[in-house]
């Protein structure tokens, strides 16, 4: 595979290869000198048409730790504000000698268009396109879960046998139970994680009000619930992943997706009571940025079993792995 555009594009073996490579990259970051010479002489362009902090900085850190040169492009203040097209921007970037392009765009399918329209001939990594896909986020979430769930992982997790009892299951996520809660309708993270985690053997339950679930979910390999408390009780999750309420997309669509922030928080927010109802070993996750007090309380976000900060660190390792596998001399292993 020349590009990384969607979680659907990766089969089981490819996912495991990326995650194992990410673990190797994470190990190098414990050294006093964190920089590797792997991509010396390569140029990575971060092409961000949407605001981002974690993803942009994470890709930048990943490329620099592999010794690549990085060019950061932001739509704000660029020629795009003067009417320049995506095609012209892409060709300008190629003229600067880019070896890979990391793209985030508000339009679903923008990364695929950039990769396949014939404008550029270098690997494209999708850093999030509209409400469609965010494959490296799903990879870092899988890495976080595998560390804390899979036996033999750095956190020494214990797998779950078919009858629900702890048992060794290898380094996949066979039997792991994950609940993803919140604004599924606008979430590329939810879509990517359903694809990624089920590939690794986990079962996924999506929890949201009916107004925040997309049409046509019948073919998604997951369960759906409208009742957060009921899902916690019946699923007994190994992880609960809270999604950001994307108020900026709701405003653009005219709003009206739930009666009030207070009612949403009461029905679908993770607070201390719901955290206490989760299994003792279950971890809390969130892709960030968080709306504290809306989808998650400060107490739940800062709980000792919260892995939210660890997710950020794992993101650098995963993106180092993706860049390495696509760009190193023996690259295009995806």
Give the helix/strand class: alpha/beta
Shape: globular
According to CATH, the homologous superfamily of the largest domain is: Aspartate/ornithine carbamoyltransferase
Lateral strand order in the biggest sheet: 7-6-5-8-9
Terminal residue distance: 5 Å
Mean of pLDDT: 88
* Low-confidence parts: 158-170
Count of domains? 2
CATH-scheme architecture of the largest domain: 3-Layer(aba) Sandwich
Largest β sheet strand count, sense and barrel closure:
5 strands, parallel
* Count of alpha/pi helices: 12
Q: Could you estimate the helical fraction of the residues in percent? A: 25-40%
Give Rg in angstroms. Answer: 20 Å
CATH classification class of the largest domain: Alpha Beta
β-strand amount: 5-15%
CATH overall fold name of the largest domain = Rossmann fold
Total DSSP E strands: 9
H/E element order: HEHEHEHEHEHEEHEHHHEHH
Helix-strand blueprint:
Elements: H1 12-28, E1 43-48, H2 54-65, E2 69-74, H3 86-95, E3 100-105, H4 110-116, E4 124-129, H5 135-149, E5 177-181, H6 188-199, E6 203-207, E7 223-225, H7 228-235, E8 239-242, H8 247-252, H9 261-268, H10 272-277, E9 283-285, H11 298-301, H12 308-327
Parallel strand pairs: 1-2, 1-3, 3-4, 5-6, 5-8, 6-7, 8-9
Helix pairs in contact: 1-5, 1-12, 2-12, 5-6, 5-12
What can you see in these coordinates?
- With 334 residues, the chain is α/β, with parallel strands linked by helices.
- The chain has two domains: 7-133 and 313-327, Aspartate/ornithine carbamoyltransferase (Rossmann fold), CATH 3.40.50; 135-308, Aspartate/ornithine carbamoyltransferase (Rossmann fold, 3-Layer(aba) Sandwich), CATH 3.40.50.1370.
- It is 37% helix and 13% strand.
- The strands form two sheets. Strands 7-6-5-8-9 form a five-stranded parallel beta sheet, sandwiched between helices. The protein has a four-stranded parallel beta sheet with strand order 2-1-3-4, sandwiched between helices.
- Helix 1 crosses helix 5 and helix 5 (135-149) crosses helix 6 (188-199).
- It is globular and about 55 Å long.
- The model is unreliable at 158-170 (pLDDT under 50).
């Amino acid at each position: 595979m020349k590009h990384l555009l969607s979680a659907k594009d990766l089969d089981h073996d490819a996912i495991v290869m990326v995650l194992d490579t990410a673990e190797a990259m994470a190990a190098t970051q414990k050294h006093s000198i964190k920089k590797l010479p792997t991509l010396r002489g390569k140029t990575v362009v971060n092409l961000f048409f949407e605001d981002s902090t974690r993803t942009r900085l994470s890709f930048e850190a990943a490329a620099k730790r592999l010794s690549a040169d990085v060019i950061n492009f932001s739509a704000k203040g660029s020629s795009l504000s003067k009417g320049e097209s995506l095609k012209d921007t892409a060709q300008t970037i190629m003229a600067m000698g880019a070896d890979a392009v990391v793209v985030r765009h508000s339009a679903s399918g923008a990364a695929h268009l950039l990769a396949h329209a014939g404008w550029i001939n270098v690997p494209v990594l999708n850093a999030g396109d509209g409400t469609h896909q965010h494959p490296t986020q799903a990879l870092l979430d899988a890495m976080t879960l595998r560390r804390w769930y899979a036996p033999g992982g750095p956190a020494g997790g214990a797998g779950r046998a078919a009858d629900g009892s702890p048992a060794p299951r290898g380094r996949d996520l066979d039997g792991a139970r994950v609940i993803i809660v919140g604004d599924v309708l606008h979430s590329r993270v939810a879509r990517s994680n359903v694809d990624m985690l089920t590939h690794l053997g986990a079962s996924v339950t999506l929890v949201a009000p009916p107004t925040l679930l997309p049409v046509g979910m019948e073919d998604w390999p997951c369960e759906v619930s409208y009742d957060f408390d009921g899902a916690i009780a019946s699923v007994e999750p190994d992880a609960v992943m809270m999604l950001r309420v994307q108020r900026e997309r709701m405003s653009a669509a005219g709003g009206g997706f739930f009666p009030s922030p207070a009612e949403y928080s009461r029905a679908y927010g993770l607070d201390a009571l719901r955290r206490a109802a989760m299994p003792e070993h279950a971890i809390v996750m969130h892709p960030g940025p968080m709306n504290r007090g809306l989808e998650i309380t400060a107490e739940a976000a800062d709980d000792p079993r919260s892995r939210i900060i660890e997710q950020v660190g794992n993101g650098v390792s995963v993106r180092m792995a993706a860049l390495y596998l696509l760009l190193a001399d023996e690259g295009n292993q995806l």
